């Protein structure tokens, strides 16, 4: 009697799937899920590490206090403006750069490598670099503008509120640009060339070709860049910390920066956790919107 | 008579593209060039007005400061100058171990998504993505408390563990796409040869997806190398302080010489920059694969 070829199947796919995911899941559970839950619990307390004695459950009081905390509300405003500025500039500049890099020209390979340069720069070093560039006494920006004859005397760029805000945004954009360029470039490379040929036959001008062919194909990558850069800019911390430390006044004091100060300088972990949870909630709303949008476009393949 | 071709047109588009390319190249390189140039200047040259675009008397003094600071440098740079060599070592170790731990954890998970059709796999994948979306500030406090309980504050492990949570979801997403690209027939062939799934994965799938593994490792390395906030919270001495923490000390200390600070910045950029330049093609494919597809 010949037994059918033995098909060993001691494990079902499901069991095997979960077994293989167990190490990663366990790590994330312990190192993300637990801290998140615990963080929420802490945010319901009055809890300052400097005064362990006054630790006390106060329910949603920390959150309620945020509603009429002018410093916090101001930082939300600064963050919103910062995100708008940085994301807007990143998308426009990234798109322009991706479009140029998608053409053939002398030195394209070199430029493609150069685009990655800012990406290799740690945020702290990015802030440090721009500090020497924007410096009031010896900075390169002052030197350059004087050489060009555009300004007569050296400016203390970072000491005016508007200047500090715009330059911080500028430094942030420089740092996050490569990501946008690469994603958009990858998107551009998927557009079939025939579409442009057809458009040319139809006598479509450059602008029309961009609007009718390029843009529709780029919607998905653009959406990804938009959302990821939004989240990035919203939690931007290191560049700002080094460049302005939130000043002058509170011109560049974003929520992320304020949260860190609240916890690190004032050791107020209760209120700091509440700050952090507001950031988390905003990020979550954006993320859910993001995933939802992609699903609706049918392009979110898992 | 040779006439000008009738339909000759000025190649406006080519000109525009070249001009823009030049402008972009300047925008990308000039700021970086500035700190590199500065790191080779003497203190006097760096303070001269108008600024020198090329160092008058190039010097290696600023780099030598980290090994053997002169009295003046030790004074103005303070502790940061002395701590830099340790910080570089710490960063290197933390980033490498993070990359390795990430691969180890992610390979199994990613393989399961590429080959097994199991209930809840979609939910699981999205769950990984969601953990990536939690901002670091949201978990830094409890993470700090957790590490304090485990007695891991001011050690490599506190950093390695936290960076693993940042990089793990991305690593799984990138690897899953690379694994899926491996032809199924190869695996079937291995099965016929009576290889178990582990042998199959180890000797067939992994070698073929080597580019993906490298891309993922570079990602995790860079994440760990660049991170600042957790390093600031979780480390306090040269036992574990990383390069960004030291660089921030340079920047916030008003007494620091710009030239020494610039040199420290260049040192902190060098390792990730070298990695990016060596593996640029892999990084670009990995990044594009991980995000354009979802």
Automatic annotation (TrEMBL), chain A:
InterPro entries: MetI-like, MetI-like_sf. It comes from the Bacteria. Keywords: Cell membrane, Membrane, Sugar transport, Transmembrane, Transmembrane helix, Transport. GO terms for cellular component: plasma membrane. Residues 76-290 form the ABC transmembrane type-1 domain. CDD domains: TM_PBP2 (cd06261). The chain crosses the membrane at residues 21-41, 70-101, 113-134, 217-237, 274-295. Its main location: membrane. The keyword Iron does not apply. Belongs to the binding-protein-dependent transport system permease family. PANTHER family: BLR7065 PROTEIN, SPERMIDINE_PUTRESCINE TRANSPORT SYSTEM PERMEASE PROTEIN. This is Multiple sugar transport system permease protein.
From TrEMBL, chain B:
Keywords: Cell membrane, Membrane, Sugar transport, Transmembrane, Transmembrane helix, Transport. It holds the Pfam family BPD_transp_1. Gene3D superfamilies: MetI-like. GO terms for cellular component: plasma membrane. The chain crosses the membrane at residues 15-36, 92-111, 123-144, 156-175, 196-222, 228-251, 258-279. It is a multi-pass membrane protein. Residues 88-279 form the ABC transmembrane type-1 domain. CDD domains: TM_PBP2. The keyword Metal-binding does not apply. This is Multiple sugar transport system permease protein.
